[in-house]
Design goal:
By secondary structure, the chain is an alpha+beta fold. The chain has one domain: Ribosomal Protein L30, Chain: A. The chain has 2 helices and 3 strands. Pfam families: Ribosomal_L30.
Length: 56
C-alpha cells in the first residue's frame, strides 16, 4: 500500500511525528510503500488526519 503525507507535521505531538518518520514520511507530499499488515494499519490509524492512502 502507498501512503502519502498530505498535512504538515508542524504542531503535532512528538509521538505522531515519530510515527510518520517510522513510515518514511518526512515532508509534505512524500509517498512511501509499506506492507499491508496490522502494524502498518495501526500506524496509519494513529496519524490518519495527516495521511492519505494512494490507490495503485
Amino acid at each position: 500500500m502507498k501512503i502519502k503525507l498530505t498535512k504538515s507535521l508542524i504542531g503535532c505531538k512528538k509521538d505522531q511525528i515519530a510515527t510518520a518518520h517510522s513510515l518514511g514520511l518526512r515532508k509534505i507530499g512524500n509517498v512511501t510503500e509499506q506492507p499491508d499488515n496490522a502494524q502498518t494499519q495501526g500506524k496509519i490509524k494513529k496519524i490518519s488526519h495527516l495521511v492519505t492512502i494512494v490507490e495503485e
